[in-house]
Design goal:
single chain, 129 residues, mainly alpha, elongated
């Protein structure tokens, strides 16, 4: 999933990539919780991961600044938690990242539809019979 962001052009698929990232982070959180329940621990590592270019501050990221601040904080928390061995902390960090990426996906898609980068979605009215 991260590879999709690494090689991504600035295009209309940005909101979909953010939504996919949110989905993957939710799945990772679930795996971590199941592993913790089975008695496993997280293999601590000292390296911190840099987000792909399109997700880094200062790269012209589309979307509300407050949601990007939330995303950046969640990414930092995932790096912090990954340095320890507590799978529940890692799961919680993945959940924070999922929530932040999911909120961004919704807002970026809304902005892209409003700007015409993505087509408008027709809303059909329900008619009573």
């Amino acid at each position: 999933m991260i590879q999709a962001h690494r090689l991504a052009p600035p295009d209309a698929g940005f909101s979909a990539r953010l939504a996919d990232l949110a989905s993957v982070a939710r799945n990772e959180a679930e795996v971590c919780r199941k592993a913790a329940a089975a008695g496993y621990s997280w293999p601590a590592h000292g390296a911190t991961a840099q987000p792909p270019y399109e997700l880094r501050p200062g790269t012209g990221r589309r979307g509300p600044a407050d949601l990007w601040e939330r995303f950046d904080a969640a990414a930092a928390e995932l790096n912090r938690a990954g340095g320890g061995t507590d799978l529940i902390e890692v799961a919680q960090a993945h959940e924070q990242l999922a929530e932040a990426a999911g909120a961004l996906a919704v807002e970026v898609e809304r902005e892209d539809r409003a700007s015409g980068l993505l087509p408008q979605v027709e809303v059909r009215e329900r008619r009573s019979a």
